[in-house]
Amino acid sequence: MPFVFDFDHAHRKPPMEMKDLLGGKGANLAEMTSVLKLPVPPGFTIAATACRAYMESGWPETLTGEVAKARARLERTMGKRIGDPSDPLLVSVRSGAKFSMPGMMDTVLNLGLNDQSVEGLAKQTDDERFAYDSYRRFVAMYGRIVLGIPGDEFDTLLEAAKELAGTTSDAGVPVELLRYLVDAYQQIVERHTGRPFPQDPDEQLRGAIEAVFASWNGPRAVAYRVRERIAHDLGTAVNVQAMVFGNRDDASGTGVGFTRDPATGATGEYGDFLVNAQGEDVVAGIRNTEPLSALKDEFPKIHKELLSIFARLEAHYRDMCDTEFTIEQGKLWMLQTRVGKRTGRAALKMAVDMVGERAIKLTKAEALGRITGEHLEQVLHPQFAGTGHRVLARGLGASPGAAVGRVYLTADDAQAAAERGERVVLVRSETSPEDVHGMLAAEGILTARGGLVSHAAVVARGWGKPAVVGAESLRISAGSFSVGDTVVNEGDWISVDGTNGTVVLGQVAVSEGETPPEFGIILEWADEIRAGHLGVRANADTGPDAANARRHGAEGIGLCRTEHMFLAEDRLPVVRRMILASTPQEEEEALEALRVAQRADFEEILEAMDGLPVTIRLLDPPLHEFLPDTQDLAIKEATEGLTDEESRLFEAAKAWHEFNPMLGTRGVRLGVIKPGLYAMQVRALMEAALGRSAAGGHPIVEIMIPLTVSREEMALARSWVTGAVEAARQAAATTGRGSGASSAKPKASGSLEVLIGTMIETPRAALRAGDIAEEADFFSFGTNDLTQMTFGFSRDDVEGRMMSAYLEQGLLKRNPFEVVDPDGVGELVRIGVERGRATRPTLKIGVCGEHGGDPESIATFARAGLDYVSCSPFRVPIARLAAAQAVLAGDTGARSAAKARTKAKSKPTGAAGSRSKAAR
Ligand code: PEP
Ligand code: MG
Predict the structure, then answer these.
(1) Element holding 288 (H helix, E strand)
(2) Strand ranges, E, within 152-210
(3) Average pLDDT over residues 440-459
(4) Catalytic residue positions, numbered
(5) Is it the case that residue 745 has pLDDT exceeding 50?
(6) Ligand 1 surroundings by CB, under 6 angstroms
(7) What is the pTM of this model?
(8) 702 vs 88, 370, 752, CA distance in Å?
């Protein structure tokens, strides 16, 4: 397979489908040249395979000959030679990876100039100034990019030349000074490299190509790929192209054009151009550009030609294209095209519009393929307006949206400030349930520690509140925090962007999230496509959250974390009393208080989700999240002293202290040592459900046991639940409340059915899923814990400290707390599904870890044959879209319980059947 392809090479398939090989820019240049026959300056592409070979073992031997041949062909086509002293051909050497990485890699322009050819260029163009200006740009660019000389050495001289000439613009520097600059620049090169500036075009070309290859692994490019989730091993292609000049005269110019508006999606051309200018001038914003429509007056013929090219591009790519073009002495050249980037709002409008447009005729499936989760997020959440904000610190974008507020460093201060009417950003090292009132009061949350499934992240996401977590550069002290030399005091303004994890000092303008009409249309199409394949539920813990989830299209609740019901300030002490109780009576009293509180909460949730399944997970508090902080109490004891109650709590907290609470007394284990706990919760739930039934509602209840690892555990937990269900039914029957309340077993339709299932959160549970399924009606994969326990990565610690190093060094392709690890954790999910369903073919299986809202993970779950995914309410639309995309990609081919049920109509029917009815 050769490494080098001319733009007009006859490929066996459309070049635009060969981005792997040719890179995005190269593929589109070839498409425009060889398929569309548009006026493109000729050139050739060095494939990404050459860059990969270069990264592996240096410059590939055969590449030298191939480049020389391609160069000779290019020179023949152009009738000019690179480096020719009388009429030189100049070329650009540009990077072009498969995925666009704007500005992240290097480009060398005006290549081919040397001390002789610059004179030839001056003669040919009859413009000495133009020739020397091009040469001084080339020497500086080559020096900086290829030879690694600091750019400011060249800049300082240019500034000095401008001062000498009494001008502020580059264009005001006279030719004499430009000649002097070229000379001085060459001396800089010689001083740095110990060699004269290379005059040989072959050497120049090889140097530029190598520099572009090397820029693939430059720090900017690596950081960009980590952020954009682009694989590090793709490599970049390199495009060598004949240069055309928009800065020759007033019959020349350059511009950027979109075939429709990339911000709004409105039809009609959009863009900017500049007369007598080079491409960089448009992008750099040095001169004021004119709108594309002004071309009509100044270059009417070119305007017409450009519009007809736009129409052809749209019809050909069946999408909005963005282009760069140059007019050289009255002739139009297309320098680049690609399917254009767009805002979320524009993406939605274009996708829906293009379904109805005759020239494009997208199918609904294709329209769905044009929308990404980020597009939906943009219209759902507020965003920073504009770009280029100076970033103070970076962390993980844990909960999308932008928030602006004054900094407060404790939950109490945050709450008090919010009560005074201030907008607040709560900044903490990390959060715990003790901070929840401050989190609620805040517009946004920023933490120095913690990962994507830490307390702050999970809670903020559930509420749709912007959060940046794990911003490790923050040093928090009393009354202020600092990042490097910058100190931010309590009361100062900051802005946080929870979509990309950035923190900016001061107040950034924010554009409101607003869903256009096309949002609903796209999601309706998504629902049609995924119906019968993959359901979408929400993780919600309160009535308002459940109602919100339903508004976003959730088809039930896949996870109600009952411990979250106790996050409110007045409830936390009750949970603590229950955990720390030292006598049966104390425990009973605490349980009773919990029951009363929970019953009301359950009623609200069941009402909000009436007719849809609600999975209630019994208490799973990792104890460190619920116990008072022993350090705080120790300090208080030493300073102010403790109250009796506090002393008692302190003693108990010390006694319950665990070195590894995430692997400690949590989940079903807590139930085992506090046997009354789960019975109390089930009683509260059943009372709420039976009450709703009696009032004419249609509650569908699923009870879920957390952290089960064996059949024995599950059997024991199941016996508590069935016992409590039975007791509640009998109690209701005696008081005459509820319907169908005489049996704990799932009953025929019309009665209140209860499914009892478990989370699968540990490798053992996944491996022994066959045993556990004997006692479980359903599974829900808790991929937060499953990831933590499969990798042995603490979900609270590893992301801030080591994840970026792992991602940058390619040790991990993705943060596994963000995108489920398809090989390890994914394998356990697949095993769990297979073994669970081997025991119980009708087993309903979902996922409720944070991955349930991540599009890539959703595809993995769909392939594993899951029935539904469950995610935070604000991610439900994204999950609906991703589920449809997974169906369209054929990812739901695996046998799912929904399909099995149609074959094997065996017991238990329960809520699974009801879900199908209600959800579709
Ligand atoms: C999980 O572990 O994936 C899960 C959903 O439970 P939690 O995050 O509450 O531990
Ligand atoms: Mg868990």
Answers:
(1) none
(2) none
(3) 87
(4) 455, 848
(5) no
(6) 453, 559, 561, 620, 761, 782-785, 848-849
(7) 0.82
(8) 77, 36, 11
